[in-house]
Amino acid sequence: LFKDSGSPTIFDKIIAKVIPSKIVYEDDKVLAFRDLNPQAPTHILIIPKHRDGLTQLSKAEERHKEILGELLYASTVVAKKEKLDDGYRIVINDGPQGCQSVYHLHIHLVGGRQMKWPPG
Ligand code: 5GP
């Protein structure tokens, strides 16, 4: 119902540390934490700490270019930390057809097993 209105999501509580998460990386702009329901041996979510209208990737505007770069770069830092030296996958589920369920932009970093292509 509130999908596109920018209502608070569970990720706000994770950022505020009101609900616990397994944090693997944090700086002033980005938080990375383990997915509660992992789809691979390594499954980490990388999110902006300040959503600033980025409920989903397709809502991005010019002002978001810097944070989009920060998120992608943080993903590479996390992948190195997790020693995903044989590769990994980065996914952004966008909107209903993309199977997005939390409307606070996030990158999924999945690895630690052989991925398949094309995805389902
Ligand atoms: P989406 O389907 O929106 O691309 O991904 C949302 C992800 O957030 C899912 O993979 C789901 O398992 C994860 N998730 C939802 N609620 C929580 C939570 O409270 N804690 C953590 N760590 N992950 C969550």
How many domains would you count in the coordinates?
1
The topology string of helices and strands comes to HEEEHEE
- The low-confidence runs, each spanning 5 or more residues with pLDDT under 50, are none
By CATH, the architecture is named 2-Layer Sandwich
Q: Which whole number gives the mean pLDDT?
A: 95
Distance N to C terminus? 26 Å
Rg, please?
Answer: 14 Å
- Give the biggest sheet: 5 strands, antiparallel
CATH superfamily: HIT-like
Shape: globular
Strand content: 15-25%
Strand order of the largest sheet: 1-2-3-5-4
Total helix count?
2
Hetero compounds? guanosine-5'-monophosphate
Determine the CATH topology.
Answer: HIT family, subunit A
Q: Give the class from helix and strand content and strand pairing.
A: alpha+beta
CATH class: Alpha Beta
Strand segment count = 5
Features:
single chain, 120 residues, binds guanosine-5'-monophosphate, HIT family, subunit A, alpha+beta
Layout of SSEs?
Blueprint: H1 10-15, E1 23-26, E2 30-34, E3 42-48, H2 65-81, E4 88-91, E5 107-111
Antiparallel strand pairs: 1-2, 2-3, 3-5, 4-5
Bound molecules: guanosine-5'-monophosphate (5GP).
Structure description:
The chain is of the alpha+beta class. The protein has a single domain, classed as HIT-like (HIT family, subunit A, 2-Layer Sandwich), CATH 3.30.428.10. 19% of the residues lie in helices and 21% in strands. The chain is built from 2 helices and 5 strands, in the order αβββαββ. Strands 1-2-3-5-4 form a 5-stranded antiparallel sheet, covered by helices on one side. A hairpin with a 7-residue loop joins strand 2 (30-34) and strand 3. The longest helix has 17 residues, at 65-81. It is globular. The model has no long low-confidence stretch (mean pLDDT 95). The site of guanosine-5'-monophosphate has 13 residues, from strand 2.
